[in-house]
Amino acid sequence: MKRVYIIIVNWNGWRDTVECLESVMRLEGSYFRVVVCDNASSDDSLKHISDWAGGSLNAYVPDGNPLRQYSYPPVKKPLDWMEYDRQEAESGGKKDFDPPLVFVRTGGNLGFAGGNNVGLRYALARDDFDFVWLLNNDTVVEPLTLASLLSRMSAKPTAGMCGSTLLRYHEPQRIDACGGGYYCKWIGLPWHIGRTRKADKVPDPGDAERWMNYVVGASLLVSRQFLKDIGLMCEEYFLFFEETDWAIRSKGRYSLAYSPESVVYHKIGASIGTRTDPREKSLLCDYYNISNRIYFTRKYYPYALVTIYTALLFAIVVRLICGQWKRAVMIARMMAVGGKGCAQQS
Predict the structure, then answer these.
(1) Which whole number is the average pLDDT over 174-178?
(2) What pLDDT digit, counting tens, does each position of 226-235 carry?
């Protein structure tokens, strides 16, 4: 049986993480181990999550929630677990102890890539796995979600990464993404494949894979060989564009895959306020999205900067119309420095 490490990054979101873990522990098969990397949460997240593992705290899922079946009733507790600091984890922890659940204190808010990379280094140091599954903490999974990812990877040996069918947690009849998306380098914006479809209109994996040029990081299975050949995620972004950067670095060596039967319910933007409507975006989301949009373009497509900056001028106008004067100024400043602010912040 293939060993899989499931890496979940938590930052001040223990309630979501506990619900996610309840569903993960129902996955079919005993071949996986879960690594929760906590990015220096200020809400005692690891204390609450360890209480859950010990059986003294349960996930709260209202009776009327249609997804309650995936995380309730609670799985049998207590669960064996081990807690490490970053240095201990990145050296592989205790090699003679293999609990189903590992908690890692990363020591700081390392962002999406940095937090996941700590977990990836833990897996690489132990060197006993075939795949790693990066899973957002604000998700709930079905029992066959992981098995379906592995099945698709087996059917497509050229693939290095595989994505799931992401459905909206609060509107499970709507698709958020089918595996991945298409990133348009000329305007610097992605489009999730299947985004406008209903859950019963999932496309054929081959059709989705022809358009995909990245896998959505909310559910991303990556092979051991991919990690060995391509390396870890780029930490310069802090938030956003990490998975797109990863896919571009692997272009020509690995293909991308999509497993329609691998279903993940995603609470979109639960941690950082991600929204498509600029009036609803958090400042954190707006900052890193735009800053990294410039940085990513400078790194891979510098010839497209003219059209990117044109699109950002339009974004400034939209922010002014919305009365977001400070954000308009923020975008203008980021354009002036070429998106360098993201690296400084991270």
Answers:
(1) 96
(2) 999 999 999 9
Cα distance between residue 11 and residue 326, in whole Å: 26
Work out the average pLDDT over 92-107. Answer: 96
For the record, the structure tokens of 132 come out as: 């790693």
Query: What three-state secondary structure class fits 25?
Result: coil
- Length of the chain measured in residues: 346
Q: How far is 293 from 342, CA to CA, in rounded Å?
A: 10
Q: Which of 189, 152, 197, 171 is closest to 266 using CA atoms?
A: 171
Query: CA of 266: how far to CAs of 22, 60, 282, 301, in Å?
Result: 15, 16, 18, 31
Report how far residue 94's alpha carbon sits from residue 270's, in angstroms, rounded to the nearest whole number.
Answer: 33
What share of the chain in percent tops pLDDT 70? 94
Mean confidence (pLDDT) of the chain: 92
Which helix (H) or strand (E) element contains residue 89? helix 86-90
Q: Is the pLDDT of residue 283 over 90?
A: no
Q: How deeply is 86 buried, as exposed, middle or buried, from its count of CB atoms within 10 A (0-12, 13-18, 19+)?
A: middle
**Residue listed under structure tokens 């896919």:** 247
Long-range contacts, 312-321 (Cβ 8 Å, 24+): 315/278, 315/290, 318/278, 319/278
| Residues 6+ positions from 241 with CB-CB distance below 8 Å | 292, 293, 295, 296
